[in-house]
Amino acid sequence: MSVEAGPRRRLEPDARRAQILSVAVRLFGERGYADVSTTDVAREAGVARGLVNHYFGTKKELYLEVIRVMLTVPGVAIAGLPDGDLPTRVDAIVSWFLDVVSRHSRSWLAAITAGGMAGDTDVDRVIAEAIDAAADAVLTAVGRDAGGPARHAMARSYVGLAVSTAREWLQRDVLTRAQVHRLLTATLLTMVEQVFQDA
Amino acid sequence: MSVEAGPRRRLEPDARRAQILSVAVRLFGERGYADVSTTDVAREAGVARGLVNHYFGTKKELYLEVIRVMLTVPGVAIAGLPDGDLPTRVDAIVSWFLDVVSRHSRSWLAAITAGGMAGDTDVDRVIAEAIDAAADAVLTAVGRDAGGPARHAMARSYVGLAVSTAREWLQRDVLTRAQVHRLLTATLLTMVEQVFQDA
DNA sequence: AGCCTTGTTGACAGTCTGCCAATAACTCGA
DNA sequence: TCGAGTTATTGGCAGACTGTCAACAAGGCT
Question: pTM score > 0.90 for this model?
Answer without folding.
Answer: yes
